[in-house]
Amino acid sequence: MVRAHEKKKFHYAWLVCAGCAVLLFCTSGLTVNAFTIYQPYILRQGGLTNAQSSLLITLRNLFSFLGMLLTGWYYRKLSLRTGMLISGLMVAASFFVYGLARSYPVYLLAATITGIGYGFGTMIPVAIVLEHWFLKERTLAIGICSAVTGLSTLGIPLLLTNLIEKEGLSWTFTAEGIAVALLAGISFLLVRDRPDSIGMKPYGAEEEHAEEEKRIYHSAGLNRRDWILIVPMLLLLGGFTSVGYSHLTVHLNALGYKPGTIAAAIMVSGIAIMAGKTGYGIVADHVGDYRTNWIFSVILLAGLLLCCIPGISLPRLFSAMCLYSFGLGLTTVGLTAWVGDWSSEDRYDANTRRFQMGYSGGALVFSALPGILADQAGGSYIPAYVFFLISAMIVVGIVQYIYRRK
Fold first, then answer.
1. Lesser CB count within 10 Å: N end or C end of the chain?
2. Any idea of the CA torsion for 126, 128, 133, 134, to the nearest 10 degrees?
3. 3-state DSSP call for residue 22?
4. For residue 155, what are the contacts with CB-CB under 8 A and spacing of at least 6?
């Protein structure tokens, strides 16, 4: 009876998961997903061109990529929880700088700080922490953490839009900076690097065959032939996921949708993102990552296809937001699952950094493309989303080909 009771006890690993989720909400959700709300206002109030607006994202992605390059050194100098706290405070500082911005160079400085905080505080440390804490249901934990970033588009876009319209852009940035600093502190209080640091064992360690499950999770290694395919796959993935989502608001604005409608669409997409990221973990635990990839690929491609159609249509708009955003579970939670499925155990941490760097590199390489194409196409972002659709098809083909080979 005692042993059965112990198995039902709440495990501290889930509080660690919550702390990681709070960090990702700040460093990823608010800096990428919710930030799209600011772009039309920055574009208009700053008197920027489409290319200059895209350059802010380019700079953010550049320093995010550089930050990821340095994560190995960064987290050797600092504990995981301390490094994650500093990354959250960097994001908070970037919002304060955005609030002070009155010229384009200051906007560029703010984007730089955002990128560094995002690079140090994104999925790389979170995946490593969860690897330490979870022998069982690790994919679900990753899915939950990743899904929480969708909260940044659930109500936040409408809130930000109302605050900007009533209080102004500067005031809203400052208020968000204060909120991020507080949330970073909460994350720090919850997260611990390893279970043994507080005298505990990982979640699932008490169950029979726990070590066997861990070995199955790290089932295969990657060879040079695999990396020849994986590198371009990751670059394209970063393009249609990060850059594609970051340009949704300016794309919808160019199509002629009103600000309130755009905010509502982004809010709906946030719900779909949360459902998709959590759903990927649940479905993958039942049918495996290979079959789950096919299911989410069809949904993702359908959403991108709808984004390529010109004209105003509310049913098409909300269908596109739901399908595209739900399908992004493939490119976020799925990406982390691929690392586990394709990596040997001793290369998991290193491959996690490499995959996230490749993803970030793709976001960097393609971040300026939508603005450049829009300036050439009379302000239309449809050519960019056609490119993203083709990119997604290529990525799906490469991923499933590697799974078949394995």
1. N
2. 90
3. helix
4. 267, 270
Question: For tokens 């490499």, what's the residue?
Answer: 354
Q: Residue 289: what residue type?
A: D
**Residues constituting the chain:** 406
Other CB atoms within 10 A of residue 220 CB: 13
Phi and psi, residue 203, nearest 5°: -65, 125
Place of tokens 């409408």: 158
For the residues of 311-322, what is the DSSP string, one character each? S--HHHHHHHHH
**Distance between first and last Cα of the chain:** 43
Question: 134 by DSSP, 3-state: which?
Answer: strand
pLDDT digits (tens, 9 = 90+) for 159-213: 888 888 888 888 999 999 999 999 999 999 999 988 988 888 888 776 544 444 4
- Domain 2-405 falls under CATH 1.20.1250.20: yes
113-130 confidence digits (pLDDT tens): 999 999 898 888 998 898
The one-letter amino acid code at 35 reads: F
What does 262-280 look like in DSSP terms, one character per residue?
HHHHHHHHHHHHHHHHHHH
Q: How many Å apart are CA 167 and CA 405, to the nearest integer?
A: 56
- DSSP state, residue 29: I
Q: Which two tokens stand for residue 193?
A: 């690097």
C-alpha to C-alpha distance for 277 and 143, rounded to whole angstroms: 5
